[in-house]
Amino acid sequence: MKPLPTLRQLRYLVAVVDRCHFSRAAEACLVTQSTLSAGIQELEELLGATLLERTRRSVIPTPLGREVAERARALLKDAEDLVDIARAAEDPMAGPLHLGVIPTIGPFMIPRVMPALRAAFPELKLYLREDQTARLIARLESGELDCALLALPYPLGDLESIDIADDRFAVVCPPGHRLCSKPTARTSDMHLEELLLLEDGHCLREHALAACALDDAPRNSAFQGTSLHTLVQMVANGLGVTLLPQMALDTGILRGLDVEVRPLAGESPPRRIGLVWRRSSGRKATFRHLAEALKAEMQPTEA
Fold first, then answer.
1. What is the SS3 assignment for 215?
2. Which of 151, 129, 136 lies closest to 246, judged by CA?
3. CA 236 centroid distance within chain
4. CA-CA distance, 88 to 76, in Å (whole number)?
5. Can you tell me the distance from the alpha carbon of 266 to that of 210, in angstroms, rounded to the nearest whole number?
6. Rounded Cα–Cα distance for residues 147 and 144 (Å)
7. What is the DSSP letter of 94?
8. Cα–Cα distance, 183 to 263 (Å, whole number)
9. 248 touches 168 (CB < 8 A)
10. Mean pLDDT of residues grouped by 10 in the chain (303 residues)?
11. Whole-prediction pTM value?
């Protein structure tokens, strides 16, 4: 039988390739530096090849070392999925769950749903990571996250998703603005406005423009916000208008500000809030239970 590397050896290699430093890699793996070095040396002897170039000051992966580390990531992720399958069979809603969430959802949705999640799944330990969509997807694919709450549509590749809720947009403008003269704002009128928008990298920027079919419309390139709170402050100071999702409006983001809100007329497309995970994950039952609980909490309340 052909001798095979151990998962421990592969984990050591990935840690060193990621950090290019033996001491930091050993800390990440919770072992001593000598243990980690010995494990990688055994791996090199087993493969009959040099995976790392070692100097007194640095460690550099060889081209083969990088390729082996990349393949090792997939093997380690599959091994973790096997463990998840076994644990989920016992209780899918128990144990740690690493959940990613984007900044235009997290502050508005998480406080709303967390009490119900704690009550429904007391054995589930949620660890939250807030970041932009592209980086969350990269963390999902690498196995650092189990699932993520994202705004859709967005290219998901081989990831799976379940829709949680629709989140429509409304126009926020200073008092007396021409868009406030009617009960609703027409998307055709929005083409004349220079919008205050989030900076590139936030998918809400593209979703807001799509809601009004504003691909070719002018936009305020002199100012690009990093958060929705910054945008509404700029509107309150008379510097322009913006589009906000209903989720943010429902949590009182405009409280205390002298601004006006008008819903968009017609059937403008909402952004969809979805729970996303790896197709290969062994915790699909967990994600489906979580999605159903989130759906129930995000149902609009009757007046």
1. coil
2. 151
3. 29
4. 18
5. 14
6. 9
7. -
8. 8
9. no
10. 91 93 92 94 94 86 94 88 75 90 94 94 93 94 92 92 94 88 80 77 78 57 74 89 92 93 83 94 92 92 52
11. 0.74
